[in-house]
Specification:
Blueprint: H1 3-12, E1 13-14, E2 17-18, H2 22-31, E3 33-35, E4 50-54, E5 60-64, E6 67-68, H3 74-79, H4 95-110, E7 118-124, E8 127-132, E9 141-146, E10 151-152, H5 153-157, H6 160-167, H7 176-188, H8 197-202, H9 216-220, H10 227-248, H11 250-255, H12 258-271, E11 272-277, E12 280-285, E13 293-294, E14 300-305, E15 310-315, E16 324-327, H13 334-341, E17 359-364, H14 374-378, E18 384-389, H15 396-409, H16 412-421, H17 438-456, H18 463-471, H19 480-508, H20 513-523, H21 529-543
Parallel strand pairs: 13-16
Antiparallel strand pairs: 1-2, 3-7, 4-5, 5-6, 7-8, 8-16, 9-15, 10-12, 11-12, 14-15, 17-18
Helix pairs in contact: 7-12, 10-12, 15-17, 17-19, 18-19, 20-21
Length: 559
């Protein structure tokens, strides 16, 4: 089924019945609207426009907010969750909420902020977004938030608590800039008349989509992943900063609980912008701009404009009516997105198809007592490599993984080749070991595949089971269960990649070099990760001074 058809089916669900009428769909879009900003002649109902476009070949396609929904369209693939049926149920904005947001928007405008042609939407209690209510041209200023509306760490340092923390050399803070912003918010947000009161009132009351707030049952869905350890460590680090503050300022611990601190640390960590304000680098909260959701490739750019003395955001391409305006949170692994921002991206790839996900893996050198060349190996690397590996072979981490394993399995002659080009001990990521010969490459990939299989065995479910659950469409897009599943499947994809690569190369690199070259030209000329590795490695092996496939004359030397 095409993505557009599946999306329209999801949008039209009502009590177990499918209704494809445009009126039904627009009604659902309307219930998600938080209220409009200004009146620029756009539809006063504030929902994304659904159109039918004639393709001129007897076919039509659906446009949602001007976005063409096709199976190959990554925009639709990543954004369709915002149109899922689950966002409509019980998500109408209550009068009290509307009042809070109305106050917030008036506060922004009264203090010089501008956001022409934009309005807010609420998808769940913890997920909001920004949409266009009119067509916006490329290179247009989307948002302007004056300096007086920004909160940065310098303001925290000027508070009593912040000053004590900043000036006490015994107060060791892990994330000092974030902590100072937290101190400012916590020590001012209880004042009903404070200047930032309208902003504080619209911050999410809970962050239950962030793993540090998950239940044990929810965390169990991450079993097998190193993310479980990262969640634990993050909690400990946040508590360490809280304890550091209370050790030098006990009254802070009396006024604000660890849970208060956890809430605020999550708000600041997930919503801040790193900008340079009048020549000073600042960790900054930017009201309104912090409501944009993540998408790559980036569609907007932002900076602090010294001439306007304002945070500004600019469109990089034209935007149509109803389109969601997105901000890039950077190139990140899904485990980082989930840990730091409370979501995961189902299609976490760049425009060139390169996946941004990582999987934690541990590799070991051969046991020293059984390895006559242990000293030579340890000169260049440690006994263990713990690393977050990707499947983009020319990326630094992958090069380090390949280098380490080429060293692990190298026989006497191959070690001589390595030593000839690595006379000094360098970081294997900075000075990688290039492919040596086919025997070594096959053995290195087999070693990586073995570790990958072991890691796969730690997950309680199989890839096929995960895929079945994902395709069942029983999980709502913003649910913790689905985000956990996306993270786990991303890790398994990387592990399966290395296993598949090993199997292919074991067969391929065992052949004559001329035959290999012909196979590579015909079968591995695409832009996928396996093809790129095989092409580059084949070229490297052909260009090396060693023979393509060295024989194992000394079997005892092979590991």
């Amino acid at each position: 089924m095409l993505i557009q058809n599946k999306l329209l089916k999801i949008l039209a669900m009502d009590g177990g019945k499918n209704n494809s009428s445009s009126n039904n769909m627009t009604n659902r879009m309307q219930t998600m609207s938080l209220g409009k900003v200004g009146n620029n002649g756009a539809d006063n109902k504030g929902f994304a426009v659904i159109q039918t476009k004639d393709l001129g070949n007897g076919n039509t396609t659906q446009l949602v907010g001007g976005l063409k929904l096709t199976e190959s369209d990554s925009v639709a693939a990543d954004r369709k969750k915002f149109f899922h049926s689950s966002v409509k149920e019980g998500k109408e904005v209550k009068v009290s909420d509307e009042d809070k947001f109305d106050v917030f928007l008036r506060w922004l405008q009264e203090n010089g902020a501008s956001y022409p042609g934009l309005y807010l939407k609420k998808y769940t209690d913890e997920v909001r977004g920004v949409h266009t209510e009119e067509t916006i041209a490329a290179n247009s200023q989307l948002v302007k938030i004056p300096l007086k509306l920004l909160i940065h760490e310098g303001m925290g340092q000027n508070t009593k608590v912040g000053g004590i923390v900043h000036n006490n050399p015994n107060c060791r803070i892990i994330v000092p800039a974030h902590t100072q912003v937290i101190i400012y918010i916590l020590t001012t947000m209880r004042d009903p008349n404070h200047f930032f009161r309208p902003y504080y009132d619209i911050l999410p009351a809970t962050f239950n989509n962030f793993p540090i707030f998950w239940t044990e049952e929810e965390i169990s869905h991450l079993e097998g992943s190193d993310l479980v350890r990262q969640i634990r460590d993050r909690k400990l680090n946040i508590k360490a900063d809280y304890d550091a503050i209370t050790s030098v300022c006990p009254e802070f611990g009396v006024e604000y609980s660890l849970n208060d601190f956890l809430w605020c640390r999550t708000a600041v960590g997930s919503r801040n912008f790193g900008i340079t304000v009048n020549g000073v680098k600042r960790t900054t909260m930017v009201p309104f701009a912090d409501m944009l959701n993540h998408y790559r490739p980036r569609e907007t750019s932002w900076t602090f404009d010294n001439n306007q003395q304002s945070f500004t955001m600019t469109s990089l391409a034209s935007m149509s009516i109803g389109q969601q305006v997105m901000d890039s949170y950077g190139k990140k692994c899904n485990s980082k997105f989930l840990l730091h921002y409370g979501f995961a991206v189902e299609n976490n790839r760049e425009d060139d198809g390169r996946c941004q996900n990582e999987c934690f893996m541990i590799f070991h050198m051969p046991p020293g007592g059984e390895d006559p060349y242990a000293a030579q190996r340890l000169r260049l690397a440690g006994t263990k490599l713990s690393i977050r590996c990707t499947m983009t072979f020319d990326e630094k981490k992958c090069q380090e993984v390949l280098s380490y394993n080429r060293l692990c399995v190298a026989n006497r002659d191959e070690l001589d080749t390595i030593n000839a080009t690595h006379r000094n001990a360098y970081s294997l990521s900075a000075n990688p070991i290039r492919p040596i010969c086919a025997r070594n490459e096959i053995a290195a990939l087999a070693n990586i595949a073995s570790v990958a299989r072991t890691q796969l065995s730690r997950y309680p479910t199989t890839w096929e089971e995960d895929m079945g659950l994902l395709n069942s469409d029983t999980l709502t897009p913003f649910s913790n269960r689905k985000n956990a599943l996306i993270v786990i499947m991303g890790e398994k994809e990387i592990l399966r990649f290395w296993i598949q690569l090993s199997e292919i190369c074991t067969n391929l690199f065992s052949k004559d070099i001329d035959e290999v070259s012909q196979i590579v030209k015909k079968q591995y000329n695409g832009g996928d990760d396996i093809s790129r590795y095989i092409r580059a490695t084949t070229f490297s092996l052909r260009s090396s001074s060693t023979t393509f496939f060295e024989s194992d004359e000394d079997e005892d030397d092979n590991f």
